[in-house]
Amino acid sequence: MYYDYYLYYLSSLYNGYPLIIRVTVVMVMLFALIAFFGICRLFFTGYKINIAARRKDSVIKEYRDKLHFIMNAETNYDVHELEELLAYNFKTNKPWKFELCTDLILEVRDALEAKKTLNLINYKNCLETLKLMTFWEKRLRTSELMVRKNALQTVGLLNNGLNTGLISKSVFHKNKHLRKAARNVHTDLDSYNPFRFMEDNFDESFTKLDKIRLHATLVKRYNEGRLPNLLRWINSSKNSNYISFIIQEVGFFGQYEASPDLLAMLDKQENKDVRIQLIHTLGTLAYGPAVEHLKQRYELESTPVREAIVISMGTMKGDDALQFLLKTYERTYDDSLKIMIARSIKKHGSMGEENLLMLQNKANESEKIIIRQVFAEQLIKA
Amino acid sequence: MIYFFTYLIYFYASALTVLYLTLIVLSYYNTSKYRYRYSKKEEDYLKKFPDEAPGISIVAPAFNEEVIIVDSVHSLLNLDYPKFEVIIVNDGSKDETLALLIDSFELEEVPYYYVYKVNCKPVKRILRSKNPAYSQLVVVDKVNGYTKADAMNAGVNVAQYHYFINTDVDCILAKDTLTKIILPVLDSEQQVIAVGATMRMVNGCTIENGRITRAKPPNAWIPLFQETEYLRSYLVAKMGWSMLNAIPNVSGGFGLFDTSVVISTGGFDSGSHAEDMDMTVRMVAYMRENNKPYRIVQCPYTCCWTEGPPNLKVLNRQRTRWGRGLLQFMIDHRRLLFNKDYGRLGLLVMPYILIFEFLAPIIEFTGLIVMGYLLFTHQINFDTFWMMLLYAYLIGFTVSVITVSCDLILGKLYKNFSEYLKLVLFSAFEAILYHPLIVIFTLRGYIQYLTRSDFKWGKMTRKGFSQTNQENTVSHVEKI
């Protein structure tokens, strides 16, 4: 081609000009190239999007009804029968086809699960017939981190078991997002020692999103069988986010036997956020002996902890808690806290409502509004 | 002098080039990372476990918005998120805004002990719906405070959740907005104090029942230019700055904020003409002063659609106000400039705002005058003049092309590919047809602020989401 010719022409044209002009010529060429490749990239992306949309449509058209029929059927089909029913063409197998089939099978499964008509055996046989597990297990070994993370999440969603040896490298990978996804899948699918990472602080980086993912995993484990005493997982942990999460889960799964230990922890715990969570969990578990303890703590604590105590007193109920709330209401000057206390008093049923009405009778105009607001809130929710 | 100035302009353009190239690289990396990190699987967790989703209050002030208010509230109430409330602040509307709200959503006054956590004009009453279907709706009826900031503060005082969205009733939020915007908050080890997201123009889109059914680029030329301008600002600049945790501004049209931090900083400043930028910087300053680690994140996805200026008159009003706001902001926060105690806010964000945002229109306008003078006195060397002009032109055009390309990678919002090409095509004329106007309007804003002339802001001709022919003139008058 004549690239050299034009390049020499351009350099000769500006030869002898100051450096600034020559630099500008280079910059203009650079920008022109970037703009040109940008436009090419735009066309290419548009083309790829169109192709992807067409492929998706064809896979949906070909397999959705068949998969729905098979996974909804009362009859169990074996792999050979499914090969015939699905009439899947393995010759044209491409990664995109596996990906689209996975999305489709998950969509059909979730829809049938919601209707409680899923034939689990047929679902698992479909995975085998379409060789989806083999595909995703292969992807678990890829060097591209984001592809591997996606594969980990997909394997977790497919929920068809996993040889955790395949993720042994990922669970200790230096990329925290991949590592956490792998540890979550390990907790979800491992059958030998699933709670290995839970006992070991789960991960040094522990966010609210990890809490939600692990919560989902623990709910699944809980539905499959009993969970161990969760409190033992925080013995070696120093990560307050993780400790708070486990304490919250103790309340969620109703591990009432852990209540005395939680109360004992409250005295030793220096972290404010963990203390708040301990108080909330004691409230969720409605641990009566904690009332006296919380009453004593109330005066010494900061506002966020006080708020937690007030909320917990509302869920614990009982005369002691109610009397405490009534006394605190009269002594409190903080309007926001007063509203919270009134809400907790109201949670004590008819007794609480009677007391609120008594408070209303002797309250000044602005306090009357607080109590009327608390009564009105229930009507709005209803 | 002229010699010095021409070099100054050249190096200014070169510095801008380097800055934009850096931001493009950072933004490309950040966007790719974001796309993979927060997939639909993450979004599904929040839907499957609604109790775990953090609550979000959507605060939207309304002043004389009778044309769009009902559609807008329906649209907000239909968002796909497990735990949220919609707080509409009726800022003393003189039209039928409140009456329409009361009728359409079966509202009645409820007893409410209003706590003024941040300052605002008196609140007259709080209204809630008798119909359980609208239990998430709260309407705050207050005395007109003349500014959006004052109305926002009234809403923040009522917000019950830890995070709130600052938006306008003329904005349409995408159905999955709340899920998209909360994910980076949940996935951060540090406290996320604010999240911004991409905004686009609603002009040209087809809307049914307050929801966009067909996204299209605007047909009118001003909103079309503004669409590319917005995309460049959100997808390149802010996504790039986000990598450095140095986002200068979370837009007032749409942004998620940490309620407790906003309250701790005293809420929105009702005297500010750029309350969004002012709020962002004050939040950062507060976190720095209290030695609290923080992050401000930018979400690349389009979460909000807003009405762009339909004509030059409204564009003039909008940009003049932004100009006033920018100058006021620079004066109000001058102590932060080059102040090492404020870390990257003082050493990076504020100098960037000063040099590349505040001074840009001044330098560009002076450059135009100097160029005219040189042309008139025949001092221009045309051998190199065209090259320099092309250089300045290509900076903007290249960034626009890359921006549109990035936008398409994130997901195809427009049905036809040709609509993306339309954006690229118009961006080729932006430097000639649109940018000079922006420079002039911004300078007008500076002059207005300095001369303290009596001015109004926010006049916007609404056409309504339902595409009716009814028109309504909204004026949010502010005088200082």
What does it look like?
- The complex is a heterodimer of chains A (382) and B (480).
- In chain A, 72% of the residues lie in helices and 0% in strands.
- By secondary structure, chain A is mostly helical.
- The radius of gyration of chain A is 31 Å and the shape is extended.
- Chain B is an alpha/beta fold and 480 residues long.
- Chain B has one domain: Spore Coat Polysaccharide Biosynthesis Protein SpsA, Chain A (Alpha-Beta Complex), CATH 3.90.550.
- In chain B, helix 1 packs across helix 7.
- The longest helix of chain B is centred in the N-terminal third of the chain and has 36 residues, at 2-37.
- The model of chain B is unreliable at 467-480 (pLDDT under 50).
- At the A-B interface, helix 2, helix 7, helix 10, helix 17 and helix 19 of A face helix 1, helix 2, helix 6, helix 12 and helix 13 of B.
The largest β sheet of chain A comes out as:
none
Structural class of chain B: alpha/beta
Q: What pair of chains forms the biggest interface?
A: A-B, 49 and 52 residues
- Biggest sheet overview of chain B: 10 strands, mixed
Extended strand count of chain B = 14
Q: Radius of gyration of chain A from the CA trace?
A: 31 Å
End-to-end span of chain A in angstroms?
Answer: 78 Å
List keywords for this structure.
A: 382 residues; mainly alpha; 0% strand; B: alpha/beta; Spore Coat Polysaccharide Biosynthesis Protein SpsA, Chain A; ten-stranded mixed β-sheet; two-stranded antiparallel sheet; 14 strands; 51% helix; globular; disordered C terminus
Summarize this entry quickly:
The complex is a heterodimer of chains A (382) and B (480). Chain A is built from 19 helices and no strands. Chain A is mainly α and 382 residues long.
